[in-house]
Amino acid sequence: MFSEVHCEGTASKTQLEGKPCSLMGMKVLQKATRGRSAGLFSLIDTMWPPGMLLEAAGRGQACEEVKAHGPPPSFCYVLAAHPDMGQIDPIEDDPISKLYQPPVPRVLREILQTDDLSTRCSFYARVIYQRSQLNSLLLLQQRETWLVVTDVSLQGQEGNDPGLPKTVSVCVAPSCVLSRAVLDALTQAASHSFLFRDTLRAHGQIVCAERSVLLLQKTPLSAASSVPSCELTSPVQLSKLDSVTQVNSVCSVQGTVVGVDESTAFSWPTCDLCGNERLEQSPGHRGSFSCGDCSRVVSSPVLRRHLEVFLACPSRPQCTVKVKLSQPSISSLLSVAAGEDGSYEVRSVLGQEVGPLPCVVRSVSAHPAGGVRLEEVELLTAGRASSQPGRRP
């Protein structure tokens, strides 16, 4: 029988993993079933069948470990401690229980090649892009966060398994409880390595939901370690945009400019000192702006632009590919298209080659000859992580 114990307030709960414990003052919150608690049972199925200690009937022989091959449980009790009565104590001087089934991290390549979607999976991976970088810890805890990750098993492919992507999208749902160390890392504009524990696979995506755990990898793993490493020794490779590229994934795009979305093209001035984009027209200075952040007059503002172009891509010949370009790409594209008066003509950028560009896929039309909307992004560079590896709850 399995039970899930809600041990909120237990100071030593992170040190209980794998330990035999005594429970006192527990109450049953509910009897969970597979139909109503699919996420809980996907975790139970991952740990089934456990090792069991059985004694030969009537012979008084010593216990021996055997494997139970019966069907996994169809129900599970959810327990919680009575106020001021509940207690969870490890049994002192008792070794790690033989019933304990620790998670076994696998490489992403192996996970993607596995058809079994009913159980949880654990893996090490490096985050190379985070959608909607959030500076607020509160927003990270309230919103769905998309991470694009990779490891050496995907980056090291050389002609093998061409159907596998170079990167994988991971959805971190609000129900996934994140530690302060992980939250701090996700608010930084830097790449970190994580252990993703007990994640779900659903609809072609990997999801960190309730009962999943994210842990910062403290130090690079050694070559002699049995744990799969996610440390990359060369620049990140991206899969090319093709017919199987999914929304929220990151891919490489290259093509020829065949059109410009003039309805969305615009420019705006920014402060040349602090980068403030909310400048106000200076009342007594023609052509100058006032920066509230610097409390100064900006006489030489830096012009930023919004530009979306249509590309003809060899990898998607029958598809309309629209890309929102980054500032460096816009400057490069327009550098040879400026007229004598400083203005730009659409015909000046048509036929120019762009890319390869790292882009995140914003939307994909269901129709094969439909459109794909992308946005050029900057991949995260390596950051420093400092956190102790955690244990399985």
From TrEMBL:
Residues 1-379 form the DUF4503 domain. Pfam families: DUF4503. GO terms for biological process: double-strand break repair via homologous recombination; regulation of establishment of protein localization to chromosome. This is DUF4503 domain-containing protein. InterPro entries: DNA_repair-scaffolding (IPR053054), DUF4503 (IPR028032). It comes from Suricata suricatta. One of its GO terms (cellular component) is nucleoplasm.
